[in-house]
Amino acid sequence: MTVAVQRLRRSYQKYWYAYAMIAPVIVVLGVLVLYPLAYGFYLTLTDANSLNTARTIGVNEIEATYKFIGFDNYADILWGETAYDRFWSHFIWTIAWTAGCVALHYCIGLGLALLLNQKLRGRTFYRLIMVLPWAVPTFVTVFGWRFMLADGGIINSALETLHLPAPQWLEDTFWQRFAAIMVNTWCGVPFMMVSLLGGLQSIDSTLYEAAEMDGANAWQRFRYVTLPGLRSVSSTVVLLGVIWTFNQFAVIFLLFGTTAPDAQILVTWAYYLGFGQQPRDFAQSAAYGILLLAILIVFTSVYRRWLNRNDQQLAI
Amino acid sequence: MSTTTVQKSATADQAPASAAPRKVRRRSERSLVGTLASHGILTVASLIALFPIAWLVFLSLGPDKDDYLHPGRIWGKMTFDNYSFVLTETNFFDWLKSSLVVSLGTTFIGVIIAATTGYAVSRMRFPGYKKFMWVLLVTQMFPIAVLIVPMYQILSELQLIDTYLGLILVYCSTAVPYCAWLLKGYFDTIPFEIDEAGRVDGLSPFGTFLRLILPLARPGLAVAAFYSFITAFGEVAFATTFLLDDEKYTFAVGLQSFVSEHDAQRNLMAATAVLIAIPVSAFFYLVQKNLVTGLTSGGTKG
């Protein structure tokens, strides 16, 4: 009896501390995330734009005049008259962009990590250089890429010297998309490479020896030792990669500004609706935001469930 | 005399012993072709990684705004004029100040608030733990589009548009959960026995955290601080939207202003970009190894 009471008291004490210690974050998240989120959701149910929200012009305070319209924004975005041009085409491109970028990040990152994991002269040096794209802020490197991709820039000059066609990287839709994926791949590979290298180094080398004793060839060792050994790191970096790429704002925004309507992914498109045009359509922009969040939450839940079913863990 | 022989024989014994397993460990002996191919691929990859940055540096030395189209001409007239112009005639130092104020403010608040939480989720299993971790993960994946409109509305109602405080608050919404994750990973690597020893000596959980764990976690705190600093430093969307006065621009916004306002001044842009990139990447190299462990270590159960 007394043991039970003691245990109860101890656990109460423990929980009390736990809650007290997470309280600051709960407060911050509540004020800075949940409240704006709730407010944003409310905005999606209205027809708010920059003409009818509360604002101050000079000394005049103008009251908000937007009104409640229910789920019309969502209906309009998802199956309104121009739904395909505005939402679904961007949706398809966003999915392609995310899948393409993450696949490239992962495959190139894994390849380089495998190369760097060998006993090789100068591998530290190689690694330091290849981390560079990660070290330099994205907004700086994207400007560098703009110089290179410009019409008379180095890439097209080089292609012309080789008598190859010089695409209009920053004007033509297909090449804009191509360029965006290329630049984002360049930016994202180092993170994958370094993470996977860490994963490779944590695989016990005796496993390889045992596999070799059993007569496994290089491919079999990769398939049955390396890949399973990388599982938890892989599942984590792939999830992070998907989230980051899906939400990648800087690369596309800085590469094209608002000049490339067809190369915008959903995030930059939502930004364009809310801040890149006049009048600013706050309600629709926020509705896009909520839809994006919903897509990501669904994806993450499914992904986690899938991992759990395969007895894997997320290493974050 | 005898000692030397003993030592000699010991080293003689050790040498083959240490060489032998290395030979075994080297899986199938790599052929010369394999080695050359590895070096070849790594060299190409390094060049691809290096080139855009090197190109930016090179262009920044060309005095003319259209030099990026005729890079060959730069060789004859390399100059540091762009740099002196950027440092003396533009708002470079205003932007530096803004970037530092906003990033350091975010870092400071983010790390302080997140530290206790990271510790709590690392050591204590309380009811609601799983849900809380889930919330932290979900806030990681908030697209900027979700918060940017409501935040803009709220900040403009609070008259915080175009202020550093407004931007710091916005960044904290991502930095705080981020730091909490990172720090949880780091706290997980500190042996739990230390906590138990602290408890045995009569410290409260908070006392244990403050007196024993925090000092040990200094490297982890540094990584969290660095990560939130970099995140705030490089953020584009909120900064572009919430800063109006070009003296308050952060670098991410300031750099864009070379394009939009004075469309042609690409040489100055390149110089500014290099000036920003060098210190940041130098700093990055100091901590890069810890960044990854911080991000992917500490398996979460649930």
UniProtKB/TrEMBL annotation, chain B:
The entry's keywords: Cell membrane, Membrane, Sugar transport, Transmembrane, Transmembrane helix, Transport
Transmembrane parts of this sequence: 32-58, 100-121, 133-152, 164-183, 221-244, 264-287
Q: Where is this region: Disordered?
A: 1-26
Residue ranges constituting the ABC transmembrane type-1 domain according to the UniProt record:
96-287
Q: Locate the compositionally biased regions of type Low complexity.
A: 9-21
UniProt GO BP: maltodextrin transmembrane transport
Query: Which molecular function terms from Gene Ontology are attached?
Result: ABC-type maltose transporter activity
- Recorded protein name is ABC transporter permease subunit
**Pfam families this protein is in?**
BPD_transp_1 (PF00528)
The signal peptide, as residue positions, is none
- Extract the CDD domains matched here: TM_PBP2
The UniProt entry's sequence similarity note says:
Belongs to the binding-protein-dependent transport system permease family. MalFG subfamily.
* InterPro entries per the UniProt record, alphabetical: BP-dep_ABC_trans_perm, MetI-like, MetI-like_sf
Where does it localize? Cell membrane
Q: Does the keyword DNA damage apply?
A: no
Asked if the record carries the keyword Membrane, the reply is: yes
Membrane topology value: Multi-pass membrane protein
